[in-house]
Automatic annotation (TrEMBL):
<feature type="transmembrane region" description="Helical">
    <location>
        <begin position="203"/>
        <end position="223"/>
    </location>
</feature>
<protein>
    <recommendedName>
        <fullName>dolichol kinase</fullName>
        <ecNumber>2.7.1.108</ecNumber>
    </recommendedName>
</protein>
<feature type="transmembrane region" description="Helical">
    <location>
        <begin position="30"/>
        <end position="49"/>
    </location>
</feature>
<dbReference type="InterPro" id="IPR032974">
    <property type="entry name" value="Polypren_kinase"/>
</dbReference>
<feature type="transmembrane region" description="Helical">
    <location>
        <begin position="172"/>
        <end position="191"/>
    </location>
</feature>
<keyword id="KW-0472">Membrane</keyword>
<keyword id="KW-0418">Kinase</keyword>
<keyword id="KW-0256">Endoplasmic reticulum</keyword>
<feature type="transmembrane region" description="Helical">
    <location>
        <begin position="125"/>
        <end position="151"/>
    </location>
</feature>
<feature type="transmembrane region" description="Helical">
    <location>
        <begin position="272"/>
        <end position="294"/>
    </location>
</feature>
<keyword id="KW-1133">Transmembrane helix</keyword>
<dbReference type="GO" id="GO:0043048">
    <property type="term" value="P:dolichyl monophosphate biosynthetic process"/>
</dbReference>
<keyword id="KW-0812">Transmembrane</keyword>
<dbReference type="GO" id="GO:0004168">
    <property type="term" value="F:dolichol kinase activity"/>
</dbReference>
<keyword id="KW-0808">Transferase</keyword>
<feature type="transmembrane region" description="Helical">
    <location>
        <begin position="69"/>
        <end position="90"/>
    </location>
</feature>
<feature type="transmembrane region" description="Helical">
    <location>
        <begin position="315"/>
        <end position="348"/>
    </location>
</feature>
Length: 455
């Protein structure tokens, strides 16, 4: 619990720092003052909840959240803090309007979590009515914010019911925040065509339709129980892919498959990156198979120290760094489409393993189980997905992603904090460290966020 309180102190300090920096950048108007005030108030409430243990993990465990770990609820402030830090450097009026809307979306999500934590069900409708009245004061806020409030409020109750012991409260809240922001950006790009650069139209629609198709197909697989048959399972994804291609054909007015291959292999840089990534992919498969077979043939090796297992897993960090660093430096858009496709493949493979699809499900489970840690207590293994998301989210959520502007700082933050910082902290700290500091890793990530926002 001490580490949880220390982490909340760090996040609260970061919130205050970014708010002061935001207010000191240019003149202060009523909207800036209101945004900063709401963020500080919500941060103070979450800080008090953490210090007084009003959302202890023992209580949250009873409704399906991951046991024996911190709730991480204070971390939901990082999304509005990151957006607020970016707002200070936006000069385009249209872009500033979109960013402010996303800040208030995330603040609405934080508010819904506070209401869910503190107040009894009989009073929640009262606070929902207050929030509805409050958000309509501003002309640029709409019913979408009420929808975000309800989705966040219901999601933090329903998700742990269906995925027992998989997530913490903080993880679910951040996930729902990011989903709301992605939906907002999708509709913003749909109605504001000027937001997209001339050569980004097809890329935006390919990424969006791909993600939507994966989500819908996976949802249908779970609800229809087609996972009981490998043929029906594969047919679901194949039919969804064909429908997605038809939709893309109507949007592009050209063959989306031809566009994809021209985009991926349309130049020397793309060919070089794809070739190097293919070699790294092969090395990853060989390393995974080798380590899994070693564990299977030597049962005694399963008793190795946790620190040795962590060091083994950091090999994946090194391999994925060799993918992301050249991609960010040489061709960001190719890295974007590769990361989105990889995420879709991870979702399909994890669905196959978690639902134990005949033929493949059990084999995947035996291969992946040797790499799990204390986060993988539920039906879903999160380790590999979190590694991909940790490096990809700064890229996916960058406000400059589909524009002609290159936002280097935010796009590299995942590589620096998770790929480099976390790996070095684990390997060198575990081998040579003498003093155990319970929040060292959390502090490192949050302090890096301060540095990244300061640029």
């Amino acid at each position: 619990m001490d580490s949880q309180k220390w982490s909340s102190h760090i996040v609260m300090s970061l919130t205050i720092y970014v708010t002061i920096k935001y207010l000191s950048h240019g003149g202060i108007n009523a909207l800036q003052f209101a945004t900063s005030g709401v963020l500080l108030l919500e941060g103070l409430l979450l800080w008090l909840f953490t210090c007084r243990c009003l959302h202890c993990s023992a209580d949250l465990h009873h409704i399906g959240y991951r046991p024996n770990t911190s709730s991480g609820v204070y971390s939901i402030l990082l999304v509005p803090v990151a957006l607020l830090g970016n707002a200070a450097y936006i000069k385009d009026a249209q872009e500033d309007d979109r960013n402010i809307q996303e800040i208030w979306l995330s603040l609405t999500s934080v508010f819904s979590v506070i209401v869910w934590l503190k107040f009894e069900a009989v009073n929640r409708m009262f606070f929902l009515m207050i929030s509805m009245a409050f958000i309509f004061v501003f002309r640029w806020l709409s019913v979408f914010y009420i929808f975000t409030f309800i989705i966040q409020w219901k999601g933090i109750t329903l998700i742990p019911m269906f995925l027992q012991k998989t997530f913490t409260l903080g993880e679910v809240s951040i996930l729902l925040q990011l989903v709301s922001i992605w939906i907002h950006r999708f509709f913003w790009s749909f109605f504001q065509n000027s937001y997209l650069a001339d050569n980004m139209f097809q890329l935006f629609w390919f990424d969006s339709i791909f993600v939507i198709a994966i989500v819908l197909a996976t949802t249908f697989v779970c609800l229809s129980k087609s996972y009981l048959s490998p043929i029906k399972f594969m047919a679901t994804y194949i039919v969804t892919a064909l429908l997605a291609l038809l939709l893309l054909f109507q949007i592009f007015n050209e063959d989306p498959i031809s566009w994809f291959f021209n985009f991926v292999f349309g130049g020397c840089v793309q060919i070089f990156l794809m070739s190097s990534w293919a070699i790294l992919f092969t090395l990853t498969i060989v390393w995974t198979a080798f380590y899994s077979l070693t564990e299977a043939n030597n049962p005694s090796s399963s008793k190795i120290k946790d620190i040795d297992k962590f060091s083994v897993r950091k090999v994946f960090h090194i391999l994925i760094l060799l993918v992301y660093i050249p991609g960010l430096l040489m061709h960001i858009q190719l890295l974007l489409i590769a990361s989105v496709v990889t995420f879709g493949v991870f979702v399909i493979l994890e669905t196959t393993r978690a639902l134990q699809v005949p033929v493949l499900g059990n084999q995947l489970h035996e291969i992946l189980k040797v790499f799990v840690d204390d986060r993988d207590q539920g039906p879903i293994f999160l380790t590999h997905i979190y590694l991909l998301l940790g490096l990809s989210l700064p890229l996916w959520l960058s406000p400059n992603l589909y524009t002609s502007i290159r936002g280097w700082n935010e796009m590299f933050s995942g590589v620096l904090s998770l790929g480099v910082g976390d790996s070095v902290a684990c390997i060198f700290g575990s081998k040579f460290g003498q003093i155990y500091y319970p929040v060292g890793r959390v502090a490192e990530q949050y302090l890096h966020r301060v540095a990244e926002i300061s640029f």
